[in-house]
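Journal club side-thread
Mid-discussion, someone asked how the predicted structure for our own chain would compare to the paper's figures. Pasting it here so we can look after the session.
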Amino acid sequence: MAIRLRVEPRREEGGCVTKHTPGPLMVIKDRAPGSLEVGPVDGLMTAEIWRRGDKERELADATLYAAAPDLLEALEEMVSVAESQRWQNAEFYAACVAIAKAKGETKEAS
């Protein structure tokens, strides 16, 4: 499976710039025959899944990609709560690494 991404900085409320397309995202099936795309609810494509024959896996990948902004936001909130409660264990640090990776702030993300 190959994914083609279009990434543009986007302004959110309050003027923050994000590198990723903010959610909510959705899976768009068959806009063109056999196509599988992911994009915001306004319908503009952000990623296109190039089908290689495993339709179930490709749909699962597209669905996970569409959920990514919501997952990132939820994980950031959980880390914030954990910090305020001074609850910092191995899972906390793993969450921090995952957030950094999702934002392209680690060498692993490239």
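Post-session note: The chain is about 40% helix and 20% strand.
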